[in-house]
Design goal:
Elements: E1 17-21, H1 29-41, E2 45-48, H2 66-78, E3 84-87, H3 94-97, H4 103-108, E4 113-116, H5 121-131, E5 135-137, H6 144-148, H7 150-161, E6 168-169, E7 175-178, E8 180-190, H8 191-197, E9 210-217, H9 221-234, E10 242-249, H10 254-265, E11 272-274, E12 287-289, E13 292-297, E14 305-308
Helix pairs in contact: 8-9, 9-10
């Protein structure tokens, strides 16, 4: 099955009500407060879900119990007064609660903006497969990059309010690992989470026609090799049209990471772009998922870009 464009939610307007949830790791209160102030500065009305500052009683890497984290997300999504759901941070935990959500009810609630990255990749995939809705791979409210990096903040703000102004994506660092030009439907996120989803109930069965955007954090080159090899062996990358890579923070010397990417992806016969400018790094671009886009990796060495054919939000 070839990937099709997903349903895009409406852009935000001044005064929009946005819910902040914590589907994964525990959230530092001071960072949350700072992030909420930034949102208010954009003339948004943030509403914090009840369990955002919870901690699991035994597993300190989780922001509360699976049931509470799932309830917060579902209640926010199904609240007709909420225009967007923003994640506070990643970490780990989305996989544990994704099957506790009532996806039938969430699909019936309709499209709204959903933003996150890292561990939130599990939810991006679930929204795509179970609801047919487009989401945003973008910075999270209580993360250091969002709080301290002005370009990261501005790109998310522009995507939310003026999405037609940010259709061509790619920092000056973007370069071709494999040259070429391709078109596909964007999907992806944190590559280790994509690999972890393989074989799970309701997981994506095929990404044929997809344009993979991927990044990760804290994966040594040999672990990244293992992740990509699993994706290759499983057939998860069969028929994809191109690959746009973001940051590889704390993944070892970049020349080693580049060697792994070239070795594992170079034989696919599709364009591969490195360092496009998204993920766990500063100046992180917000990437729309589930939209048609063109990946351009010119043979003359000029700037590589990912251009979405429609604005991220309607």
């Amino acid at each position: 099955m070839t990937l099709k464009p997903l349903t895009r939610p409406a852009r935000l307007r001044p005064g929009a009500r946005v819910a902040v949830v914590a589907p994964s790791g525990p959230v530092p209160a001071e960072r949350l407060d700072a992030g909420l102030d930034l949102l208010r500065g954009w003339d948004l009305e943030p509403v914090v879900a009840p369990h955002v500052l919870d901690a699991h009683p035994e597993l300190d890497y989780l922001a509360g119990t699976d049931e509470d984290r799932a309830r917060d997300l579902q209640d926010a999504w199904c609240d007709p007064s909420v225009d967007a759901v923003l994640c506070a941070r990643g970490g780990y935990g989305a996989h544990r609660m994704v099957d506790l959500l009532d996806w039938t009810a969430m699909r019936a609630a309709g499209a709204k903006v959903f933003v996150g990255y890292s561990d939130i990749t599990a939810l991006h995939e679930a929204f795509a497969v179970r609801t047919g809705l487009s989401t945003l791979h973008g910075p999270m409210v209580a993360t250091e990059t969002f709080l301290k990096d002005a370009p990261t903040q501005e790109h998310l703000r522009a995507t939310l309010f003026e999405p037609e102004s940010v259709r061509t994506l790619g920092l000056g660092s973007a370069a071709a690992l494999v040259t070429g030009r391709s078109r596909g439907i964007t999907y992806g996120g944190c590559v280790s989470l994509l690999a972890a989803d393989i074989g799970a109930a309701h997981a994506r069965r095929s990404a044929r026609g997809g344009l993979l955007v991927m990044e990760d954090v804290g994966e040594d080159p040999y672990r990244l090799d293992r992740i990509l090899t699993q994706l290759l062996r499983s057939g998860a990358l069969d028929g994809i049209s191109g690959v746009a890579c973001g940051s590889w923070e704390n993944c070892g010397p970049y020349e080693q990471v580049r060697a792994v990417l070239a070795d594992r992806l170079g034989g696919l016969g599709i364009p591969v772009v490195e360092e496009l400018g998204f993920g766990h790094s500063p100046s992180a671009l917000t990437i729309p998922l589930g939209v048609p886009a063109v990946l351009d990796a010119p043979t003359d060495g000029s700037r590589c870009t990912l251009t979405v054919e429609v604005p991220a939000l309607v």
